[in-house]
Amino acid sequence: MGHAEQQKRRYTPAEYFALEEQSVVRHEYFDGEVFAMAGASKAHNTIAQNLVIALRSALRGQRCQVFMEGVRLAVQENFYYTYPDVMVSCAPADFQDEYLVRQPVLIMEVLSPSTAEYDRTEKFSQYRKLASLQHYILVSQATWAMDWYRRDEAGQWIHRLLTEPADILDISDLGLRLPLVEVYEASGIAPIRLGPPTTR
């Protein structure tokens, strides 16, 4: 989701929560600054739906919940709040709160041109501070490409790039096996096409 505008004044967390209750536009919050979120493209929306459908199917019968972009994440209490495109939480405490997720195991962001670099760098740097987070996945809107970051047992983040239609996002701890072709189904986005090598 893109940052449409930056508000000039600074907000307390309580003021931010009051703003969100009244506003038809969602805002992210970072250290007193509030950022309005831009609308999503149809392709963005379709990809997010495909991800949620796959996750809900995989998690059926498990004590986990899937949330879409309208649910707020407390990245750092009273300091940083965002609206990830897709989240999964298996924490009982998250089931009790009506509006906030605090312990996601998975976050997915569908990249927009205006926010792609931010999602890859500053936002990921903040998300890594979430002790519960095991998977961070960035999904391109430019072509079929998905960056999967997985935290290993030593706490290191392992990266895998998926670009082939037959590539599968295989997250065994969530029971998810999602082919890349299903991520982009009905999105109108074309896979990477390699042309013949150029001669000099």
From TrEMBL:
Entry keyword set: Endonuclease, Hydrolase, Nuclease
An example molecular function term from Gene Ontology annotations: endonuclease activity
Domain Putative restriction endonuclease: 14-173
NAD found in the keyword field: no
SUPFAM superfamilies: Restriction endonuclease-like
Database matches in InterPro entries: Nuclease_put_TT1808, Restrct_endonuc-II-like, Uma2
Classification via PANTHER family: GLR1098 PROTEIN, RESTRICTION ENDONUCLEASE DOMAIN-CONTAINING PROTEIN-RELATED
Protein name: Uma2 family endonuclease
Species annotation: Hymenobacter saemangeumensis
